[in-house]
Amino acid sequence: MDRPARVVLAGAHGHGWWHLDNLRRLRAAGLAELVGVCDLRPVEPEKLRGLGEPPQSPDLTELIERTGAEITVLVTPIHTHAELAVRALAAGSHLLLEKPPASSAADFDRIAIAVARSGLACQVGFQSLGSAAVPAVRKLIADGAVGRVRGIGAAGAWPRPATYFTRSPWAGRRRIDGVETTDGALTNPFAHAVATALALADAPVEAYEIELYHANPIEADDTSSIRLRLSDGTVVTVAVSLCAPERHEPYVVVHGDAGRITLTYTMDEVRVGDGPPTRHPRVDLLENLIEHIRGGAELLVPLHRTAGFMGVLEEIRRAPDPLPIPDEFQELIREDGEVTRRVLPGIAELTARSAERLALFGELEDAPWSASGVALRAGGRTVARYVWRHPDVPVTVSPRPFLHPVRTLGGVEVSETRPADHVHHLGVCVAIADVGGRNFWGGRTWVPGEGPRWLDDHGVQRHVEFTRLAEDGLEELLSWTGPGGEEVLRERRAVRAVPLRDAWALDLRFTLANATGAPLEIRSSATKGRAGAAYGGFFWRAPGSATAREVFTAEAEGEEAVHGSATPWLALTGAAPDGREWTLVFVRPGPPERWFARVREYPGIGVALAWEHPLLLETELSRRVVTVVADGRLDRATAAAYAAEVTA
Q1: Global pTM?
Q2: Which of 74, 247, 385, 583 has an alpha carbon 20 to 30 Å from 231's alpha carbon atom?
Q3: Domain's final residue, options 94, 129, 164
């Protein structure tokens, strides 16, 4: 019980140097002895000074068995963690596993199974969770120091040179030769920010919103923001970047309805409100593991405690590849003509504002490089972008979320936004000309007896939150707000990209709930006297540049015959300027409603909510439209077959 713990270090280069220094400290204290070094590259004797002459080997299992090591400190590349952790446990060694514990949820589960079968201990190297500052903040929350917690925000901004991303073959990579590496800002250098924020909350994560970017020419993210919604209603955000001009200490702030608590986790400092900071001790995780093995002390960061972090990592792994930040938004630091570092001006302030507002980068001002959309994928390809933030859309357009660009699997663009002929047409959207006297369509309002007039009656569809966010689709809550700021409608919307044979389908569902407390009249311009203008509801604006446009149903063809029909499906075809043809097959599952169709003036298709008479909305209404997006010009039989497939 009194002898030093026998330790093997796997991965002695890079961060392994820190562990060598720590082992010198523990050796001097009589707590640990380095009995072996496992690495593909031998470690020079001078790097091991003060640690004896431990044997070296590239074979971890052989080294553990030969030395009788009780503990393996695993500091190898992320994508090797699972294989080497399983080997160490199988050889009878306890484990200190560097963060992140694995590069995928599947690998994490593999390690967890090996830990359970072996009965050995596995501590994960989230050093911030070894700080007494974390339980101190949790106690402040439990004691009601800041009232009810409404959210937790984390922020971090560090500088990193270009060489940081070339230091190893896996640095800045999402995968190597098909093997997941998941080395991004959120999952590796700022993994502590994510883990620490989650450690202050008690509920599991129910929904994820993720924005990934890279300023450096890498595969993974170097600038990112995420928002997590927990089952108890708490919101957690983390905004970080490796492109700051200087180092800013990362921190986590707890927002309560009666104040805030700030934890600067790298310094173990806690501040309540504007009061003085208090410093808290930190326990070394290897030392804690030794005490656990020797005397039964409780592990501070057992593997299961990091499951929440791994849930975040898995969502990031599955997210679309990060978006590049154009050079025009960066400050490029050069030496001898080479870019040695990239800086995003004002990035530290943006991360701080994210933590303050619990917002994503895309929701903040002064982040012109940030995306305001979500990519949708089908058949392994990005086929559409859902734009949910639109700061450049004027109020006269009735700002609202929309899909654009929408593309066929062959890459032909089949949507258009803000065209010159109708600047208030926004790709694929839900828009209504008149909801209780408010214009949620955009442009001029039709006034009976007067015609189109510019009125100050434009409303806005405001994004509230995503309740589901995945590569194949999303579910969203929206608030339809009138020109005076009053809430008119609440909407639940679901958008999904569904792969089909040689095509894909956009499945859009929405439920509008009356938020006024009184019956609400929905009208189109046609119900106010403008003949044929029954637009309002689901609407798809196709490219005005498309040639050879045709529209048909199972029974009819041509705009005059199709406009106003109530058939189960309708098809619109056209050709891009480069000659590539496309077809959209619109399907309305459920009771029939009339189609709004324009072809000659502009290509646009909608399902009308109010054709001849106003629609009275007392509680709520639901609609669904499924649109098949296909390459080529489909004939009637093929379009009908697709319509039957998506209806089924």
Answers
A1: 0.65
A2: 385
A3: 129
